[in-house]
Each structure stands twice: as C-alpha cells, then as structure tokens.
Amino acid sequence: MNVTARDQAVKTSAWLLYTLIVLEILFMVSPFAAYYYSIYAMPLNVLQQSPSTAWLTMYVLPHFAYSDSWLANGLVLISWPLILTGVVSFVFGFCQIYWSKFTRREAVEVGLYRYIRHPQYVALAVIGLGTSLYWSRFIVIIAFVSMLYVYYFLARTEERVCLNKFGESYRDYMERTGMFFPRKWEARWRSLGIRLSPVSGTRIATLAGLYVFVLALTISGAYLLREHVINSLLVEAGADRVIVFLAPVDPPTRAAVARLLDEAALPGNLAYVAPSSWQIPELGFTGTADGHGGGGLDELLHPGTHGNALSFNTDRLSVLLVAANSVYDNVLGMAPLAKALTIRPIDFLELDLESGKIIEHSLAPKGQWQGIPVPTF
Fold first, then answer.
1. How far is it, in rounded angstroms, from Cα 124 to Cα 85?
2. Are 337 and 235 in contact (CB under 8 A)?
3. Residues 91-106: pLDDT tens digits?
4. Directed axis angle between helix 3-28 and helix 33-47, to 10°?
5. What is the pTM of this model?
6. For residue 1, what pLDDT is reported?
7. Domain residue spans of the chain
C-alpha cells in the first residue's frame, strides 16, 4: 500500500468510527428517530443473536432509571456539556483553518493552533467522549477508543505533509506547540523518558500492544461501572420478576408494590414502576403535563429522571410489565435486568397503594421502539 492509499485508509477508518459513535445519538434526537433508528438497529440485532457479541449492544450508564450513584449521574451530567464544548471548539478551529486557506496564508498559528497542532481532532474527541457517556453502548465505547488511536496516526500523517510543504517553519512550530495538549503538559509525559522504538516493526508491535491493553482496560472498567450502576438502581428482585423503580421511593413503598405484584398472576419477568404523573417515552409512560419538574437541583443532579419532578404522589404508581429477552443462560435473580438485550411490553397497570389494589390493567401499547435495541435501565 503506498503512502496515499494508506493515508486515505486511515482517514476513512477515522470517519467510520466517528459515525458509529455520533450517529446513534443524532438518530435518537431526530423527529424521525424511530424510522432512522430502525435501520441503524439492523446490525445491532445481528450482534444480539450470539452470546459472544450481544454484550456489545448493552448499555453501561443509566438512561431513564433513577440511580443514587454520584459517579453514574455525574458522568451522564457532563455528557452534553462535553458535546457542546467540542462542537464550539471544532467550529472555531474549522473557521481558522479555512480562513487561512481562503486568504492564502501559511500554516495557522493563532487561536487554538497557538497551543496545540490538532485542535479539531481534540474537539472531535471531546464530542465523541460526551456521546459515549450519554449513549453508552459497549460498541460505542470501543469505537471511541479506536477512534482516538486512528486520530493519532491521522495527525502524524498530516504533520508529515505539513513538513514537506512548509519545511523548517513548521518544524519550529512543532517545537513550540503540543500535538493534542499544550506543550507544557506534554513535556511532563516526555520527562518520563518513554519513547517509541525507531525500528518500524518494533514500533508497530508496540503500538498494537498498547491499543489492545488500553482497549482491554477500558472494557474492564466499563463492565465494573455497569455492575456498579445496576447495584445503584432501586430494584426488588423476586421469584417471578425483577422490579425496577424509576423514581426514588422508600423501602416500604417498594415492598408494597412487590407484594401487590406477587399476589396477582401477572406475566413478564421484568417490571418498570414510575409515578403515574411521569412521562418516559422509551417505556410508553405518558404521565401528565404537571409531572415534569421545574428544573430544580434534585432533577438536575439525577438526569435519569428525564426532567420529571421528584415530588410526586407515592400512592399512585404506573407499572409496565415486559418480557426481557436475552441470549444468555441463567436469567435468575437480577439477570432479567442485567442480561436483558431487548424488552417486549406486555401489560400496563395502575396501582393505588392507599387501597392496596390494581385499579387498571390493560395491554401495553406496541410502542414505536419495539424490536429496536434501546436502553433497558
């Protein structure tokens, strides 16, 4: 493969990985999300057919379930600020580059480029990080790590081109700036004396080994974080089903709901419980207009509430009974939730805990997300 073809392959790989990371969240915020996402779901459904690949489609952080983990909530909270910061930085760097080309100037050395040589790649990485936190599938996290790795090679390729084009002026610029971080920050790393071998074969083997190590470390960390998240949810695991409480309710209320569901002959191995006033589109909870909070601190610090008010009538609760589908064995205990790949709505209930009765029982609506891999907590 010649240099031109190799460079093109690196660029193509970078954009494919970036598309995988960002495209899903763009689909989900689109007015035509169900239509577009049904197409995107096709390869995800293929991955879910085998136990060896199904885990790639699972989520790490909570999306609509209440969590009392400050770590999980904090990671979700910073996702959109990261995305917006990355977008602004990318546009700023883009304008600097193309204004320089339009005015036929030499290499850009002002603004962000005064401190780092590749601010647009850094901006794209920040967008990718925010997206990976907000829509945290394992496959998206893997794509993000791989994208960072490809960006390194892409940046090195562009620097070789700039050296050939601008000569010593660009070499001087490289001496004054950092590649992805300010020069002073990168100097601390270089002070450790860690250097890649100049021998091509050894260098490639070292980079490949480093990639495998970082990827394995990231996946292991994501698994531990996912386990922590599931343990932070308000859950009652009974003999027949796992009950997930999407709002903060006290232990007596959780016990009363579990007892009421156990006493009735109800289908489904997983149940989602929310205040009757709450609106959760992913699960078909329609709620009421006054169920949304006023943007208070409690709602802000718990992004899984989807903007619903944390003050509600604990005597009136809605329940969605679903069949959690999985390709894994041993779906006892917490497994219907922890190993769920997709959920199929079955029945919808309205509970009145003051009277201790199920006051409404109907078939759950089909829902626009049926058959599409969406978050399960």
1. 10
2. yes
3. 877 777 666 665 555 5
4. 120
5. 0.82
6. 42
7. 3-230, 234-363
